[in-house]
Amino acid sequence: MRAFIIANTAKPIVEAALQKWLPAIKSRCEVVGVEIDGLYDLTKVEADIMLVFGGDGTLLSAARRMAGKAIPMMGVNFGRLGFLASFQPEEFLEKFDQFLQGKLRSTSRMMLETSVVPAGRDCSPLDRPAVIARRYFAATALNDAVITAGPPFHMIELQISADVETAIRYFGDGAIVSTPSGSTAYNVSAGGPIINPDVEAMCITPICPHSLSFRPVVVSSNSTVLIVATKVNEGTTLFCDGQASTKLVAGDRIIITRSPNDAILVENPQAREWRSLAEKLHWAISPKYNSGDGSAKPL
Length: 299
Description:
Helix content is 19%, strand content 34%. It is globular. It has a 6-stranded antiparallel β-sheet. Strands 13-12-11-8-15-16 form a 6-stranded antiparallel β-sheet, with no helix packed on it. A 4-stranded parallel β-sheet has the order 2-1-3-4, sandwiched between helices. With 299 residues, it is an alpha+beta fold. The protein has helices at residues 12-28, 56-66, 92-100, 128-134, 186-189, 273-281; strands at residues 2-7, 30-35, 49-54, 73-77, 106-109, 112-117, 137-141, 144-148, 156-162, 168-172, 174-178, 201-206, 217-220, 225-231, 237-240, 244-247, 253-258, 263-266, 288-290, 296-298.
């Protein structure tokens, strides 16, 4: 078994954990490399597992930089939520042994492929080769592609369509296109639905729409989402997983499709979907009622 380690040592506790765990990991398998600065070319890594020490952001970066490399990632959470990096530090070695013994399953998570076609360039949103040939920005995302209004924070105007349906005209602060994995991130904060990772879909969620009737829409993962930046601010920006980004100008077309490559995550059997929502986002927590003595007690 060959392991490659990605460690976000910007978090001091990660560096200490890496030094503590490295001898134990080497005693269990062959360590083919250790990245601590985020500069490694992950497309050239030959390994059977990626051990990602950091948080969801570290794992998102690794998934994006792997560019379709089909290596399972085991994320150990040193961040806050840990939806994707679902293993806790205190259980890592035990769960790593279980992985080596073939007792943990890995699942595929769909990713997005996002291209920007500059204003004035002639190509169909469904003509993938033409898009690839003409794009000046392209990135993949495991969570989401987000258009934000940016400074000076006036409302922007977007035209949004899926599968060449009639575009809707929308004023607001931006839009989110998320995967099921990313539905519990910015999407849910903006009022979008939580989508089970097993569902093959994308969710289009407006950010602060200037409308009482523009609700999030879930479309097939086979759809092509086209967003035209009709009116933008100087700082209007497209972000992929909050990391890769590019400024947008009026007339730019953002084309979002399912990536042909999935990310592969080692699943923690203790981190079930609904349990994680309840523990990490306090989903479905019962309301608190006044007990009559001035203190609030749970139902």
